[in-house]
Design brief:
The strands form 6 sheets. A 5-stranded mixed sheet has the order 4-10-9-6-7, with no helix packed on it. The protein has 2 domains: 144 residues, CalX-beta domain (Immunoglobulin-like); 108 residues, Lipoxygenase-1, CATH 2.60.60. By secondary structure, it is an all-beta fold. A hairpin with a 2-residue loop joins strand 12 and strand 13. 25% of the residues are buried.
Length: 259
């Protein structure tokens, strides 16, 4: 029997589900009853003041009773356990008289990366009254990272062999706002891969301080000297500088910068 692919139209709201259904010819007058997420993929930046994202499920038909739509989290998700508050229920209710229901994902902003997005993928379990399957929106991937409303600052460190000797901090008015180290040592006399740290800092005057516990800076040999660099909102504000010369006189170096 001949079949057709058709975009599912929502009955009440002038919104189209981004999904296709396969159903028998002759049923074009009324869309088949199907459920789907709002879209198949979405990318969001999570704000600290409002760290929620509404996960919405739509139905192609409005009925006079509540419907419960169950979902699960796909194993391919890259979300970390502390990225969001665990769900109290793995279901979304579509209220009677409505064509959609929603559930807030509450993210933990401080645990999210400012630079690298992670992903939550949801799979929909079609309710028993569904007569068709939403092919493209039965799953939804939410890609997320933290949003910076101030200055996006990137610190780059290239360490010498002795990473265990290196620590650093950034302070504002004497208060430490970021710090790192010590790190691991390399197995040979060579520079280590670049380490990048992304921070969100408000405007003001800052001091970047790098320390070497041995006292010769990030120095292994004349050809293996580590360095640092700072960018703010994509612009270099502290040019890359090497640090150390083997004379054991460069225990600490401090650099001032303003955002």
């Amino acid at each position: 029997m001949k079949k057709f692919f058709k975009i599912l139209a929502l009955v009440v709201a002038p919104i189209l589900l981004n999904s296709c259904d396969e159903y028998e010819a002759g049923s074009e007058v009324n869309s088949p009853l199907s459920y789907g997420f709002e879209r198949s993929t979405v990318s969001v930046e999570i704000e600290e003041v409002d760290p929620n994202f509404a996960l919405k499920v739509y139905s192609t038909q409005v009925v006079n009773y509540d419907r419960t739509v169950v979902f699960d989290i796909d194993p391919s998700s890259t979300a970390l356990p502390g990225d969001y508050v665990p769900f109290s229920s793995n279901s979304i209710v579509i209220p009677a008289g409505s064509n959609y229901g929603s559930l807030d994902i509450e993210f933990n902003h401080n645990n999210l990366s400012l630079s690298d997005a992670r992903m939550l993928k949801f799979n929909l379990v079609q309710p028993d009254d569904a007569t068709a399957v939403a092919l493209t929106t039965s799953s939804m991937s939410v890609s997320y990272k933290a949003k910076c409303i101030y200055n996006l600052v990137e610190l780059s460190l290239i360490l010498d062999r002795w990473g265990s000797e290196t620590t650093w901090s950034i302070t504002k008015n004497g208060v430490t706002v970021a710090s790192g180290g010590p790190y691991t040592d390399a197995g040979s006399n060579a520079l280590q891969p670049e380490k990048k740290f992304t921070l969100c800092l408000d405007s003001g005057d800052y001091v970047f301080t790098v320390n070497d516990s041995y006292g010769d800076g990030m120095y292994t040999s004349a050809s293996v000297i580590g360095s640092y660099q700072i960018k703010a909102n994509g612009t270099t504000i502290v040019p890359r500088q090497t640090w150390g010369d083997g004379t054991r006189t460069h225990y600490t170096r401090s650099v001032n910068f303003t955002l």
